[in-house]
Design brief:
binds guanosine-5'-triphosphate, nucleotide-binding, P-loop_NTPase, Rossmann fold, 5-stranded mixed barrel, 23% strand, binds zinc ion, zinc, 363 residues
């Protein structure tokens, strides 16, 4: 099975566990869940978590070879698992690589046990709002973030994109921007806001897909997704599901569906899920992973330090070297180089808008 689709936890679409333990770690890019090293499970297999649903985790386990005198060979399979007791307080999220023991056959009705979570390459977090210092882990091990934003309906908001960018840079994830609904409005004025950043941009509308042509935006996006794990984020209604359905035809994200593993039918728009995104034409099936997340209105950054926020403004960073020592770069900061650069024209009107964006987030 190359893809599957299982609902997330309805009540906690970003994972059930506040991430107190991880926040204390000094390096936000390479932190690991604080799991005590348990006795080795030499028989454990590794799987990737693709869905979380009320204490049940779905993991994709690659084919395992036969062991002499031991278990038989097994093909790639979907395994449903519960967490081991000792992992009660550990966040397990989509994208996590986990060690599974017990019945890892993936046969209908079987239940394996997750006994540990592997170190994470990246952790994408979000807090409820900026005053909320308790963040949730949304996704583990994403390498790219595709920020989906509509040219119109809903109106694009610079501030929300700024927030996604900050969250991505803070997590060490490469951001990408996809403007949808370019048939409804000219996307360029909005995109100018981000022109100074070296962020790849895609422009999408069903008329621009031209699936068969290499120039079509879908082909461009597929190429970028190949072999990578990419989390899709965006405000509700921007066309994220439409895009995912076009990229991963089996995804069926727009309509409700029956959960293949649990048999429960539920609407998908509140759930996160990982879908494999095969790249047509790529030799050897250069599969990427698309992680869909529920559309959000706001994206809290209460957990990000001001240094983390600055990382989202790569275009302004070179100026800051000339700031007075300890400069906070806010409106009130005396002699901030950002103000001097606006005054003497090194930053144009667009640059001044970037400074405003930064300062709103630094508040
Ligand atoms: N004109 C136009 N409409 C689009 C485009 N993409 C999506 N839509 C429409 O926009 C509406 C919302 O699209 P969805 O794909 O459901 O949006 P979503 O971002 O997944 O929204 P949530 O499920 O709430 O997160 C639907 O009616 C789509 O048909 C586009 O490129 N152009
Ligand atoms: Zn400054």
């Amino acid at each position: 099975m190359s893809w599957f689709n299982v609902d997330d936890d309805d009540d906690a679409p970003y994972g059930e566990y506040a991430d107190h333990e991880v926040r204390a770690r000094p390096n936000p890019k390479a932190n690991r869940p604080r799991t005590k090293r348990r006795p080795e499970h030499s028989d454990a297999v590794i799987g990737m978590v693709t869905a979380v649903d009320r204490g049940r985790y779905t993991a994709l386990v690659p084919a395992t070879p036969a062991v002499k005198g031991g278990p038989k060979a097994l093909p790639e399979r979907v395994v449903v698992a519960a967490r081991a007791r000792e992992l009660r307080k550990t966040a397990i999220v989509i994208g996590d690589r986990v060690q599974l023991v017990g019945d890892v056959s993936g046969t209908e009705g079987s239940l394996a046990r997750i006994v540990s979570v592997e170190d994470r390459a990246t952790v994408l977090r979000r807090s409820a709002d900026d005053s909320d210092r308790v963040e949730r882990i949304m996704v583990a091990n994403a390498e790219q973030m595709l920020i989906v934003v509509a040219a119109a309906n809903p109106e694009p908001r610079v501030r929300l994109v700024d927030r996604y960018l900050v969250a991505a840079y803070d997590a060490g994830i490469q951001p990408l921007i996809c403007l949808t609904k370019i048939d409804l409005a000219d996307p360029e004025p909005f995109l100018e806001n981000f022109a100074a950043l070296e962020v790849p941009v895609f422009r999408s509308a069903p008329g621009a897909w031209e699936d068969d042509s290499t120039e079509g935006v879908l082909s461009q996006i597929r190429e970028t997704l190949a072999g990578k794990t990419t989390v899709f984020v965006g405000h509700s209604g921007v066309g994220k599901s439409t895009l995912i359905n076009a990229l991963v035809p089996e995804a069926d994200r727009a309509t409700g569906h029956v959960n293949e593993v649990t048999g429960r039918g539920r609407h998908t728009s509140s759930s996160s899920v990982a879908l494999s995104a095969p790249t047509p034409g790529a030799a050897g099936g250069d599969t990427g992973w698309v992680i869909d997340t529920p559309g959000v209105r706001s994206f809290g950054l209460g957990h990000v330090t001001s240094d983390g926020i600055l990382r989202g403004f790569t275009d302004l960073i070179p100026l800051l070297d000339a700031c007075p020592r300890g400069c906070t770069h806010t409106d009130e900061a005396p002699d901030c180089e950002l103000d001097l650069a606006i005054a003497d024209g090194r930053l144009d009107a667009l640059g001044a808008r970037r400074v405003e964006s930064l300062r709103r987030l630094l508040k």
